[in-house]
Amino acid sequence: MKAVHPYLNFSGNTEEAFAFYQSVFGGEVFGVMRFRDFxxxxxxxxxxxxxxxxxIALPLGQGTVLMGTDALSSLGQTLRMGxxxxxYLEADSAEEAQGLxxxxxxxxxxxxxxxxxxxxxxxGVCTDKFGVQWMVGYTGDAGQAAAQ
Length: 148
Hints:
Pfam families: Glyoxalase
Protein name: Glyoxalase/bleomycin resistance protein/dioxygenase
Oligomer: single chain
Strand content: 35-45%
Shape: globular
InterPro entries: Glyas_Bleomycin-R_OHBP_Dase, Glyas_Fos-R_dOase_dom, PhnB-like
């Protein structure tokens, strides 16, 4: 496995939270995407939420990155203690991503099936049978295309 990162959900104040974390840990915030940045509003986000944070990242040192997003009620997301954090696994290959995702999702719940997305060759979200939330990804060639 390439890396493991904490991924936090916030109720509309992700930008404020990451400014705070940056003041605590230092470093530079990167990878900021607002919902407005997705082509053709692919997620059907209402106008009032388009400037909310879809993704943000802050390095914590030695290859660990704190990541986050705004959970939007307009997309049917209800934030509560217990669903405000995920563990993100960056796999070394598409095959490893598939194996990790399948094993973690067995007996649990799949929120988003493992699939190709704009930022990754494979990406999926699930909750395991113990209630732990996981994001599994393999950036692969999608990450190279996104960087260009």
